[in-house]
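Aim 2, interim progress: modelling of the copper (II) ion-bound target.
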Amino acid sequence: MITRRTLLTGLGAGVALTALGTGMRSYNNNRAVAFARNPAKLPIPPLDKGRMEKGVRIFDLALQRGQSAFLPGSKTPTLGVNGAYLGPTLALNDGEQVQMRVTNKIGEPTTLHWHRLHIPAKADGGPHQIVEPGETWSPTFKIMQKASMFWYHPHLLHKTGLHAYMGMAGAMIVRDAQSSQLDLPSTYGVDDIPIVLQDKRFARNGQLIYSSSMHDRMMGMKGNVLLVNGAIAPRFTATTSKLRLRLLNGSNARTYNIGLADNRAFEIIAGDGSLLPVPVRHKRVLLSPGERAEIIVDVADGQTANLVTYPYKTTGGGRRGMMGGGMMGMMGDDNRRFGILKIDPSKQLKTSPAIPRRLVELPVLAESSASKTRRFVLDMGMGMGMMMGGGGGGFTVNGQEMDINRIDERVKLGATEIWEISNNSPMAHPFHIHDIQFRILDRDGKPPRGQETGLKDTVLVGGGETVRVIAKFEDFADPQRPYMYHCHILEHEDAGMMGQFTVEA
Ligand SMILES: [Cu+2]
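Predicted structure of the complex, ligand included:
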């Protein structure tokens, strides 16, 4: 159980973290918006290609504390990787051997997890791979991925939410031979742009508020200011007629329904872990915490394209639940609107090639090839009581809170399995599985659409909904060291909505 005490003492000396809950007057959103009227240029995280040593690509990553200037006239203590806030974009190539040298300079234990790289469990950077202060952790592994964007973030038991919220995260872009043949925008920072979204709540002195109120533990920590690569509603000048935006929801709890303010359509070309078989033309892309999507925005008309968030309702009717329909509705909806990015086309636009109509061939996993169906029920039953002023935890998978000393599931190496994830609560949960990429079979019996047609590692399961996914558990067996599956609302993960599985020969 997370108590207010552990939250308050969590960061030790050095970072004055305000944890006074929703009663504390936060940084006025209007002030942030007014500030954004004079918007900053979109910061582009540096592209880190590492350095080659005996055929291994080495990345030196220092986890550190720093001060960031998000708001006028105030400095915000933050965490970052090789910088004050967020970290570099790591450039990785399929088939290459890499070593991550992670040095912990934040003065307290943490971990760094490679969100859904297919690597041995001992290299995963989950709750079992703690990096003590002053230590360097150096996992070596081979990149075995389809071209896509992945990300790294902390994964310490009970502290993931806090450490990620403070900014210790970054993107990883994997390229492969097949995708390099495609005529897609791929000049980093010019027409291929990472967009890391994190919402924050600020105290009036500029410090981040990480609240321990019942409400924020239940709903997850949501902010009222959206940072886009660390800037508020920034601008970007396009020099090409098409822009590839690689969207990463690195937020603790908030799902974004992203679109253009003038309602123009864009092409979705990738989901979490791969390109899509074919581009999907759409006006919105829904992104829950942990999820990624790549979109191609066309600005050939010379008009400013304003990327914003729209209100949304999650799918799923909440067929069960202890609350009335109104409450369930509220828990599935989000009506806050944020500006994400204003794209100004320059006068002389270079014309980008047309988007290829076919992008990638993905392996087919037939349902009949599955040897087993495992069922996972997500619940927050007691948590409801908690919000109502009672006690208890109750953020569970299959009725149990995470126990780091318990292996919940044992999967046979080489097996193809169907995992059926049912949400027994009224609130949507983004369910994430380490080690594998899955395909979505169906959502309440209906086949997936749009960005969900590629390889996935995180799927939003609406209130009362059941999603079935299929995956093959290959290559890495380790009976001792588990991988995690969990809700990617980090406060839920920290409160127990997580389990452990091993892959065994
Ligand atoms: Cu959750």
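The helical segments are 4-9, 29-36, 160-165, 177-180, 214-219, 325-332, 381-387, 490-495. Residues 61 and 102 are 5 Å apart (CA to CA).
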